[in-house]
Amino acid sequence: MMIGRCRVRILGWHTPNQAELPTEDLPWAQVLMPITSASQTGVGHAPVGPVEGTWVMGFYRDGELAQEPVMVGTLPGVPEKFAKINTGFNDPRLDTDDTDLNSVSSTTGLGGRGTPTNLTSFPYIPKSISIVSGSEATIEEYTDEERKAFSSKSLYPRELNVPTTSKYARGEGDSSSLATTKGIIAFKNKNLSNRTIVSTFSPSPFLIPKGESITAFAGKSIEGTKEYLSSDDYASLKSIGEVKQIKQPPSAYAAVYPYNHVYESESGHLIEMDDTPGKERLHWYHRSGTFTEFHPKGIRTDRIAAH
User: Fold this and answer.
1) What is the pLDDT of residues 223-276, one digit of tens each?
2) What SUPFAM superfamilies does this protein map onto (predicted)?
3) Which of 28, 191, 225, 251 is most buried, most CB within 10 Å of its CB?
4) Does the domain spanning 167-193+249-303 belong to CATH 1.20.1050.10?
């Protein structure tokens, strides 16, 4: 139906034993959107926030019949254990071979039935990004085998004993965040661009002195017909040039919790609206390395990881 519903296993109502209650037999829970979203055709936010393994709170809208749960919010926390395979109240993506998983075609972008236990059907952060001047970025993805070899098997949670709050929101005040030494900010600061730009002023052809000619684009010859400038004055204008070295400034990231409002996507996109006093920033980052960042004093940095 594509209206944001999720299957939920409810504490106190459902057993964690999947032999008794398989995931596919769990009830669908409706999403309760905030008042800031219209939830109407073509208007409002998409109700697609929770991921596999997300803890939610809610209520039964049909009361004691308990067949129509509604989710009203998600619960952050500090995970202590990785997901257990074939156990309820855990990310179920690797549980059984007969589970229908989503897949996306690399050519058409259309979804279909994926290989049940192949994790490449699901989004994940890049393994590495290679940026070469004058060409598109090369993004290397983790293989299914590499993802399953992680301690978390790339299921949720992906890390233990650290808050589920984004490390970019936790900032440098949290020693576990490593926001400036590992991840997107570190990648940006290790790959600063440095370019030399030569600008030359070429006066209008209308200023070419009468009796002289220049060779323009594609070898076309243009002859002067006016006497606005002497030959020496025209030559002096044409010789004006400037050489500048353009250096990409490092990220101005210096977030302090709880002032940085962060959204991270599953595949590695990042949006920040940082209200940290004196370090206010706006930052839009694409997983390929392309980004736009507004620094505290209004400096805007744009980088495109392509042609």
Assistant:
1) 888 888 888 887 777 655 677 888 899 999 999 999 999 999 999 999 999 999
2) gp5 N-terminal domain-like, Phage fibre proteins
3) 251
4) no
Give tens-digit pLDDT for 44-54: 999 999 999 99
Question: How many CA atoms lie less than 13 Å away from 304 in the CB half-sphere?
Answer: 5
- Return the C-alpha torsion angle 55, 56, 57, 62, nearest 10: -120
Annotated domain spans of the chain: 1-75, 92-163, 167-193+249-303, 197-245
**Whole-number Å distance between alpha carbons of 259 and 251:** 17
Fold adopted by 1-75: OB fold (Dihydrolipoamide Acetyltransferase, E2P) (2.40.50)
271 in Cβ contact with 284 (< 8 Å): yes
> Does the predicted TM-score (pTM) go above 0.85?
no
Specify the residue for token string 């749960």: 69
The CA distance from 261 to 253, in Å, is 13
CA pair distance 109, 119, nearest whole angstrom: 17
